Amino acid sequence: MAKALPSRKENYSLWYNELVKKADLAENSDVRGCMVIKPYGYSIWEKMQRGLDDMFKATGHVNAYFPLFIPKSYMSREADHVEGFAKECAIVTHYRLKTSEDGKGVIPDPEAKLEEELIVRPTSETVIWSTYRKWIQSYRDLPLLINQWANVVRWEMRTRLFLRTTEFLWQEGHTAHATSKEAVEEAERMLNVYTQFAEQTMALPVIQGIKSESEKFAGAIDTYCIEALMQDGKALQAGTSHYLGQNFAKAFDVKFANKEGKEELVWGTSWGVTTRLIGALIMAHSDDDGLVLPPKLAPIQVVCVPIYRSEEDLAKIKEVVSKLEKEFLTKGISFKFDDRDTERPGWKFAEYELKGVPLRIALGPRDLEKNQAEVARRDTKEKMFISLDRLSDDVVKLLEEIQNNIYNRALDFRKQNTHDVETYDELKEVLNTKGGFVLAHWDGTAETEDKIKNDTKASLRCIPLDSNGKEGKCVVTGKTSKQKVIFAKAY
RNA sequence: CGGGGCGUAGCGCAGCCCGGUUAGCGCACCUGGUUUGGGACCAGGGGGUCGCAGGUUCGAAUCCUGCCGCCCCGACCA
Q1: What is the pLDDT of residue A103?
Q2: Which residues pair with A106 in a beta bridge?
Q3: A155 touches strand B (CB under 7 A)
Q4: Alpha-carbon span A399 to A20, nearest angstrom
Q5: CA gap A247, A184 in Å, rounded
Q6: Which nucleotide has its C1' atom closest to residue A385's CA?
Q7: Following CA atoms A341, A344, A345, A350 in sequence, which dihedral angle do they give, to the nearest 10 degrees?
Q8: Any atom of strand B under 7 A from CB of A198?
Q9: Beta strand pairing status for A263-265 and A335-337?
Q10: What is the DSSP string of A246-266?
Q11: A296: closest CA among A248, A256, A334, A349?
């Protein structure tokens, strides 16, 4: 059989790129650094959106929408925030074009220069807090729990499909609270929501942690994150939740009257996940034959490929399929019957493997004689024959099994690729040869973090929340360390 | 912005060093037929400003000059 993809082991980046394109998820657009998400890829995003949105609603949040443009002056209100994002902003300077002198094209009309330039949002804290100022007067207006689904633009130097594009889709939650305690609880709650979504829906095991000073969000007091391990041993930040303290309330003068009638600054959080999650999904589960999708996110959960010579064969198969289709429908399974006569069965098999469809049913005359179907699992490549009488029941079980199996497989992989080290030599050795997550004691200083980054190209991914609290000595300086932290090369 | 590489059919490439038939190959596409239990085969066919502009030459995809665009590596990063 012709291999559709390059080998994962030989060239991971090439494999990834080819897979994204061949599985019909996305492609590079003609616009610098931007991505076209194709219908198949977008339907995975839609499933993610639905799953996450339900969880946001269940935790009391509502959706709203704020402007794409941010007046330049807003950006500079919060000092850390502007410093963090200034280098990657797209700026709107004019509102009209005119034909150029040589008549060959158009130029921004110098007469239509904006008095104040607009920034295309890299994130919405500033516009949203400038609005919250108007919305919040009393403790009765709090907590304010709002989420928005939007696109943002960050002018990154180098881009990669799904993992880092100039424009990307995400959700950003922005909440306001009366007390610090409530805001911290909210940030932690949403981190748990992300964790649950990653593990239960995406079958992606993650580690919860806190970012170091140098890695945290520009404008936050604390950044919580979930970190996942990809199959090439690199870490991927899969979601973040920030405790903002009163930073944005101060910058935008957002105050409320408490029960005693005293004015106080509001406490805030923000949290987000992006289309990068699709990249995580791909890199955590897929293989050299293509995508492996967790059943809970697969746009098509079960595909049926008929095998036939004559029209009579096909008619008989269709009869069986229409019964199956009804059973699947009542059981909430998304099903596709591919009876195109323009492609041959072998071609279809390969195509659905490439697209990560969890279960494939092949039905031919031989099967009908025996009242059975051939069922193939995408995750294990296992093939089995199942009686048509209990096919839909077994499919439900199999889908659950696949969901669990790919989670456990990813979890095993992470365990195999998480290494405890005690010395700096060991840390460097592991990072250079094996990769993966490396647990090591760290003295808490940015200097040590920088040194490790320079020596190994690995960054401090997070200080795990689940620390087991064992004290020790920093692998670089020998100073005391409260707990081990995670270092890894990252995307 | 620094260091490498590339631009030839929708996609992937060969040809260029050493100028000379009608610019070629694989995939894809179209037509007809045979096929269909793991990416079918045969026959025929369509499709090109050789990135752009200038120069050298009897003659340029090929040599020279300038420009444009893209990709990879680094700085940046969800």
Answers
A1: 64
A2: A99
A3: no
A4: 23
A5: 14
A6: B37
A7: -120
A8: no
A9: unpaired
A10: THHHHHHT-EEE-TTS-EEEP
A11: A334
The reply to whether the CB atom of residue A58 sits less than 7 A from any atom in nucleic acid chain B is no
Write the CB contacts of A345 (distance below 8 Å, at least 6 apart in sequence): A305, A306, A307, A362
pLDDT tens digits along A367-397 = 999 999 999 999 999 999 999 999 999 999 9
How far is the C-alpha of A153 from the C-alpha of A123, rounded, in Å? 8
Question: For position A14, what pLDDT does the model report?
Answer: 80
What pLDDT is recorded for position A1?
43
Per residue in A294-308, pLDDT tens? 999 999 999 999 999
Tell me, in Å, how far CA of A415 is from C1' of B40? 44
- Whether A4 CB is under 7 Å from strand B: yes
The C1' atom of B53 and the CA atom of A36 lie apart, in whole Å, by 33
Nucleic chain B contacts, protein chain A, residues 230-269, CB cut-off 7 A: 237, 240
A289 beta carbon to strand B: under 7 Å: yes
CA to C1' distance (Å), from A333 to B21 = 63
Determine the distance between A203 (CA) and B1 (C1') in angstroms.
41
Instruction: Tell me what pLDDT residue A102 has.
Output: 65
Q: For chain A, which ranges sit under pLDDT 50?
A: 1
Confirm if A438 and A458 have CB atoms less than 8 A apart: yes
Q: Do residues A444 and A481 touch, judged by C-beta distance below 8 A?
A: yes
> Whole-angstrom distance between the N-terminal and C-terminal Cα of chain A?
33
Here the tokens at position A295 are: 């059943």
- Determine the Cα–Cα distance for residues A293 and A358; give it in Å rounded to an integer: 6
ipTM of the prediction greater than 0.90, yes or no: no
